[in-house]
Every structure is written in C-alpha cells, then in structure tokens.
C-alpha cells in the first residue's frame, strides 16, 4: 500500500512539474510570437507571470492539503497498528502466564498423585508379608 501511495505521489509531483513547465513555455512562446509592441508585450508578460504565480500558489496549497491528509492518514493507521500489536502482545503474555500456571498445577497434581501412589504401593508391599504369614499360620 505504501508503494502505491509513493507511486501516486511521484506521479502527482511529475504532473505538477510538467504542467508548470508546459504553462511557462506555452505562455512565453505565445507572448514572444505575437506581434505586439514592447509596452503591450511587457504588460502581457506581467499578467501571465501573475497568473502563473496564482496557479503556483493554488497548486502549492493543494499539495500541502494532500500531504497533510496523507500524513494524518498514515499517523492514524500507524496508531491503529500499534494498538493492535499492543493488544496482541498483552493477550499472548496473558495466555503464556495461564499456560505456565496450568503447567504448575498439573505438575503439583502429578507430584501429589505420585506421592499417593507411592504411599499406597509401600503400604501394600508392607502389608502383604503380614497377610502371607497369617495365611500360613492357619
């Protein structure tokens, strides 16, 4: 998208420069080719210079407006992207913390279960010889 905007800015810039150069060359050639007296020619040149100055001011204002709009749009979009990245980062951290806590819970439960099983096995192992002795006596 930025490449597309960059190409559009370059095309707009090239168009403005071409229009200015074309206008100046056209105005100069029209003035110089027309059969007028020196006083009339100077008057026409002054008028054309004023017109060119006004057009240049208009185009300059238009370029400033467009560039400020583009800057505002880029700023808004970058703020949105930064906000989304921040939200995702927070979400990922929260999920990782939850997984760590669940892992600790599972480890604790496994240790408790292992302890219970070990105790039961030891109790069973200790009880069997006594039962065998009782069975052999009777």
Describe the structure.
Pfam families: YtxH. This is YtxH domain-containing protein. The chain crosses the membrane at residues 15-34. Keywords: Membrane, Transmembrane, Transmembrane helix. This protein is an all-alpha fold and 138 residues long. It has one domain (2-137). The protein has helices spanning 2-33, 38-137. Helix 1 runs antiparallel to helix 2. The model has no long low-confidence stretch (mean pLDDT 82).
Mean pLDDT comes to 82
Order of helices and strands: HH
Approximately how much helix is present in the residues? Answer: over 70%
The value of Rg in angstroms is 43 Å
Overall 3D shape: rod-shaped
Q: What is the count of DSSP helices, taking H or I runs of 4+ residues? A: 2
- Helix-strand makeup class: mainly alpha
Sheet-strand content, in percent, reads under 5%
Keywords: Membrane, Transmembrane, Transmembrane helix
Protein name: YtxH domain-containing protein
Pfam families: YtxH
Transmembrane segments: 15-34
What attributes does this structure have?
single chain, 138 residues, mainly alpha, 2 helices, 96% helix, rod-shaped, Desiccation-related_membrane, membrane, YtxH, YtxH domain-containing protein
């Amino acid at each position: 998208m930025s490449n597309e905007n960059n190409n559009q800015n370059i095309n707009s810039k090239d168009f403005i420069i071409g229009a200015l150069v074309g206008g100046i060359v056209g105005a100069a050639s029209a003035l110089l080719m027309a059969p007028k007296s020196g006083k009339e020619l100077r008057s026409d040149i002054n008028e054309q210079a004023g017109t060119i100055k006004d057009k240049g001011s208009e185009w300059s204002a238009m370029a400033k407006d467009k560039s400020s709009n583009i800057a505002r749009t880029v700023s808004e979009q970058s703020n949105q992207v930064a906000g989304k990245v921040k939200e995702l980062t927070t979400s990922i951290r929260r999920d990782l913390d939850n997984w760590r806590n669940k892992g600790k819970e599972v480890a604790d439960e496994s240790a408790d279960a292992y302890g219970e099983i070990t105790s039961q096995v030891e109790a069973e192992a200790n009880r069997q010889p006594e039962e065998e002795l009782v069975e052999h006596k009777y």
